[in-house]
Design a protein that fits this description.
Keywords: Signal
Protein name: DUF4294 domain-containing protein
Structural class: mainly alpha
Signal peptide: 1-17
Organism: Psychroflexus torquis (strain ATCC 700755 / CIP 106069 / ACAM 623)
Helix content: 55-70%
Shape: globular
Number of helices: 8
Length: 237
C-alpha cells in the first residue's frame, strides 16, 4: 500500500511537471525550451541546422533515368577511395612542408608512394573503366589537382606521361578535371554526392573549390529543361 501511495505521488508530481512544462513552452509571447543533456537549462530559442531539400531531377526517358542510377551506383562505389586518397594527399603535403631537406622529402615521398600503392592497387584494379574515370574526376574535386599532376609531382614528368598514356589505352584520362558547370555527367555526379551526403549514406567531404549545386540546377534547367524548378530551404527537426 505504501508503495502504491508513493507511486501515485510520484505520478502526480510527474504529471504536474509535464503540465507546467507544456504551459511554459506554449507561451507564444515568450517561448522557452528546456534542453536536456548532462545539464538542464532554459533558453529563449533553439537554433536548428539548415537543410537543403533538393527537387527531383527530371529525365527525358527511362533510359536517361537508368543511366543516372548506374552513375549513382558507380559514384557511391568510388567515393570512399576518393575521400581516403585526398586525406592521404593532405597529410603528405603537410608533412612535406615541415621537411627542409630535399633528400628527406624524396625519401618520405617514396615511403608514402609504396604505402598508397600497397593499400589501393589491388582494389583499384577491380574498378571498371567508367568507375576509374569517375575516380580521376573526383580526385580533382577533392584536391584541386588532376591525377596526372599528382603523379607528376610525386614522381617525374616522364613517369606521369607514361601513366597517362597507359590509362588512355583504357579510355581513362588522368588529366580529366571535374567540371559540373560544363559537363552534364559531372553535374549529375555532384547531385548524387550532395543527396547522399544529406542522407548520410556517404561521408561528407568538402571540395577544394566552390561548387553551388543550386546554381548548377538553374543553369542546367535553362539549357536542357530536365531539372525541377526550385529547391526548398528547411530546418532539420
Amino acid at each position: 500500500m505504501k508503495l502504491a501511495i508513493a507511486f501515485f505521488l510520484l505520478a502526480s508530481v510527474s504529471v504536474s511537471a509535464q503540465e507546467a512544462k507544456y504551459q511554459e513552452t506554449s507561451n507564444c509571447s515568450n517561448q522557452r525550451y528546456l534542453i536536456i543533456g548532462h545539464d538542464a537549462s532554459w533558453v529563449s530559442e533553439v537554433e536548428l541546422e539548415e537543410v537543403m531539400i533538393y527537387p527531383k531531377l527530371k529525365f527525358k526517358s527511362r533510359d536517361d533515368f537508368r543511366d543516372y542510377l548506374i552513375l549513382k551506383r558507380k559514384t557511391k562505389k568510388v567515393w570512399p577511395y576518393v575521400k581516403l586518397a585526398s586525406e592521404r594527399f593532405e597529410t603528405l603535403n603537410k608533412r612535406l612542408s615541415s621537411i627542409d631537406s630535399k633528400p628527406s622529402k624524396r625519401r618520405y615521398t617514396r615511403v608514402i608512394q609504396r604505402y598508397v600503392e600497397e593499400e589501393f592497387t589491388e582494389e583499384l584494379k577491380k574498378l571498371t573503366k567508367t568507375e576509374g574515370q569517375i575516380l580521376v574526376k573526383l580526385i580533382h574535386r577533392q584536391t584541386g589537382v588532376t591525377t596526372f599532376d599528382l603523379v607528376k609531382d610525386l614522381r617525374s614528368g616522364w613517369r606521369a606521361f607514361w601513366y597517362n598514356t597507359t590509362a588512355s589505352l583504357f579510355n581513362i584520362s588522368l588529366k580529366e578535371e571535374f567540371n559540373p558547370s560544363e559537363i552534364k555527367e559531372d553535374f549529375y555526379i555532384e547531385d548524387i554526392l550532395q543527396r547522399e551526403f544529406q542522407t548520410e549514406h556517404l561521408e561528407r567531404q568538402s571540395p577544394k573549390f566552390e561548387i553551388n549545386l543550386m546554381d548548377l540546377m538553374e543553369k542546367w534547367q535553362k539549357e536542357s529543361g530536365l531539372i525541377a524548378p526550385s529547391a526548398i530551404r528547411s530546418n532539420q527537426y
